Amino acid sequence: MRVETCFLFDLDGTLVDSVYQHVLAWSQALDEEGIALSVWRIHRKIGMSGGLFTNQLLRETGQDISEDRIARLARLHADAYGRLSAQIRPLPGARALLANLTAAGIPWAIATSGRMETARVNLRALDVDPERVPVVTRDMVKYAKPDPDLFLAAAEKLGRGVETAVIVGDSIWDMLAARRCRGLGVGLLSGGYGADELERSGAVRVYEDPADLLKHLDEVGGRR
């Protein structure tokens, strides 16, 4: 019996060139709250859930992070990201990759650790309408990556078992989540993580960006 493949995509750094805008937005938010954290340390946290982000802040800064402060940081980040939104662009080949899957009749969905408040900017850059395409954001699940909830919910929206999914992401948090829900993790280098890190976290294949993945779709079951 043939397994019908579906694709589940992360958003930031996977389909949209927005990782470093998020890093700068978080840096500005943390600065406004008087929390000192090196920019490279912020980059290592992009893609994880807000709760895990906060826990790591506690460990690395030793500061008390109250619920009110968490809410303020989220608002400051969203405001700063909004100011950078004009810089957001689809990654090379992202639109063509999604169009190719659609033309081939292969279902796909987007699952992002970002809330819709910031994800909407990225979706607009991709010309993806969340009213017509299955999109799962942090607002819709209990836990975000590295928990698998986002990908499980996205597969459910497609009416597919997550074990039939090719899960495409740019961070170790995507690959860990894919591994936990038994999806097939495929890594992209376009978010700044190295191939060795992605492979250690569970990626079975690693490509440069969406354009490179499109050239090799047949290697991961992306054909009809």
Automatic annotation (TrEMBL):
The keyword Disulfide bond does not apply. GO terms for molecular function: phosphoglycolate phosphatase activity; sugar-phosphatase activity. Keywords: Hydrolase. Gene3D superfamilies: HAD superfamily/HAD-like, Putative phosphatase, domain 2. Its EC number is 3.1.3.23. GO terms for biological process: DNA repair. GO terms for cellular component: cytosol. It is an enzyme of class 3 (hydrolase). InterPro entries: HAD-like_hydrolase_sf (IPR050155), HAD-like_sf (IPR036412), HAD-SF_hydro_IA (IPR006439), HAD_sf (IPR023214), PGP-like_dom2 (IPR023198). NCBIfam families: HAD-SF-IA-v1, HAD-SF-IA-v3. PANTHER family: BLL8046 PROTEIN (PTHR43434:SF16), PHOSPHOGLYCOLATE PHOSPHATASE (PTHR43434). This is Sugar phosphatase YfbT. The lineage of its organism: Bacteria, Pseudomonadati, Pseudomonadota, Alphaproteobacteria, Hyphomicrobiales. The gene is yfbT.
